[in-house]
Amino acid sequence: MITLDNIKQMVAKGTLCPYAFNTYELGPQGRQRFCCVWKEQALLDEDGNQLTVNNSTIQDAWDSTQLNQIRADMLDSKQVKGCERCYHEEQSSSASLRLQESHRILEVPEDTAYFVDAINEFTNTGKVKHIRRMDLRLASLCNIACVMCTPDISTTSAREAKKILDKDQRFAEFTNYKPIFENEVDFGLDQKYMQDVQDNIHHVNKIFFIGGEPSVMRSIPILLQYCIDQDIAKNIEVQFSINVTNLAQRSVELLSHFKSVQITLSIDGVGKVNEYIRYPSKWDKIMANLEILMDLPEPFWFSTAPVPMIYNVLHWHELMQFWDSINKNLMIGRQIYVGPCDLVDPPFLKFQNLTPALRPLAIERLKQCFDLEMYNTNDTISEKTKYMISELENNTFNEDYYNQMVQYSQILDKHRNLNMHECIPELTDILYS
Ligand code: SF4
After folding, report:
1. β-pairing, 133-136 with 32-33?
2. Which of 98, 341, 344 to mutate to test the pocket of ligand 1 (most atoms within 8 A of CB)?
3. pTM over 0.70, yes/no
4. Which of 83, 102, 342 to mutate to test the pocket of ligand 1 (most atoms within 8 A of CB)?
5. Contact 421, 272 (CB under 8 A)
6. How does residue 333 score in pLDDT terms, banded at 50, 70 and 90?
7. How far is the CA of 135 from the centre of ligand 1 (A)?
8. Do 11 and 116 touch, CB atoms closer than 8 A?
9. 37, 71, 99, 344: which to mutate for ligand 1, most atoms within 8 A of CB?
């Protein structure tokens, strides 16, 4: 019998991660996985083929030999291929997704009990019976083209990539564009897959809708309505990620029936910085929508998951000041939780590609964040900022990535007719020197 104390030790000193024991993820283009930070594209079958919704069921992925081996390796404190991002981050902070999720679970008695049961079930039977959490990227439909997004995830990015490629073939080096990505693919509108989700959802207590852009996806209201009709909505916490360019009225109406609803605001900068990153969104519109959303009563609550990258690392402090000042005017319990995410791809847009000349300025500005009130109460944000500083102090500058970032930015700015100098002047001086 593995006790809670054993598990706490394995989390603290080993590689144990709840994602392998509680989460099913539908990744981009129907690929079946279990964690959005895990670096492999999909789980594989025994012949090495990627498991997708077209060739396998959710249970095939959940009970795959590969995922069961990952679970066994984690319990043996072995490092898992694909989890390197978490291990690397844990060398300088405790803000890795592995530790964040573990701490969250160990604070909620019901989730802790499930985690302990799942691990003991696995050690006794070699399987975990029920999925507890679903992270669903149901569709690629998106109404904007974020600078770090890829055509397989956003229809708007795909259509923009096609236009750029028609004029400038150098862009082929930076995009995974395929004509098929221009079409809206919504796996939730596929009856067979939706039935599979519904068959597996009855033990789930958390659903995370990721994009594309969930506020415009057509199949999400269908799944929400199913949960309401089955009387299970009251047991389920939903995390609903939105870019705040619209109010997602139909989904919001349905979400009000759920146990709790975490609206995660995808905002990566203040004003022009966000407009540059989340093109072609408009800051004024986002602020107007935010004001309306913030009036939503319980069960709604709010978080934001900014992504540190080359375009916002010099202005990260402004974003933190922005949320800090908003939180000061909100009642305790209604405050916006700031929990940064990692940029998985493309690697040349990671904040670590900042030039050695600009790193001292970024570090100085990042250090200012520790004076903010929010940093006294939010461990994740202070640990993530420590990690960013440590990376800028110690990470070797990669000139190849830097050159890719310069060329990518120049092609994109030209196509979008954007003046980066208005948004990120410090970076422009280097990019266009
Ligand atoms: S990548 Fe990190 S969060 Fe994901 S399964 Fe691996 S250790 Fe867990």
Report:
1. unpaired
2. 98
3. yes
4. 83
5. no
6. confident
7. 14
8. no
9. 37
79 within 8 A of 15, measured Cβ to Cβ:
yes
Which atom of ligand 1 approaches the CA of 20 most closely? 5
- CB within 8 A of 275, min separation 6: which ones? 281, 282, 283, 423
Q: Which atom of ligand 1 is nearest to the CA of 39?
A: 1
Sorting pLDDT into bands at 50, 70 and 90, what band is 432?
low
Atom of ligand 1 nearest to the CA of 84: 1
> Tokens 């305790």 — which residue?
332
Closest-CA residue, ligand 1 atom 3, reads 98
Instruction: Give the pLDDT confidence score for residue 395 in this predicted structure.
Output: 84
Ligand 1: list residues with CB < 6 Å.
Answer: 17, 19-20, 35, 37-38, 80, 83, 85-86, 97-98
Residue in 348, 337, 308, 398 with CA at minimum distance from that of residue 93: 308
Q: What is the pLDDT of residues 193-220, one digit of tens each?
A: 999 999 999 999 999 999 889 999 999 9
How remote is the CA of residue 371 from the centroid of ligand 1, in Å? Answer: 31
**Residue 184 neighbours by CB distance under 10 Å:** 16
Per residue in 161-179, pLDDT tens? Answer: 999 999 999 999 999 999 9
Ligand 1 center to 34 CA (angstroms): 9
Contacts of 123 (CB under 8 A, 6+ apart): 2, 75
**Which residue's CA is the closest to the ligand 1 atom numbered 6?**
83
User: Mind giving me the DSSP string for 327-372?
Assistant: HHTS-TTSPPEE------S-GGGSGGGS-TTTHHHHHHHHHHGGGS
**Residues 15, 77 contacting (CB under 8 angstroms):** yes
Residue 69 to residues 26, 65, 72, 200, 356, Cα–Cα distance (Å): 20, 6, 5, 22, 41
Give 183-186 contacts, CB < 8 A, sequence gap 24+: 183/155, 184/139, 184/140, 184/141, 184/155, 185/29, 185/30, 185/139, 185/140, 186/138, 186/139, 186/140, 186/141, 186/217, 186/218, 186/219
For the chain, the first-to-last Cα distance in angstroms comes to 63
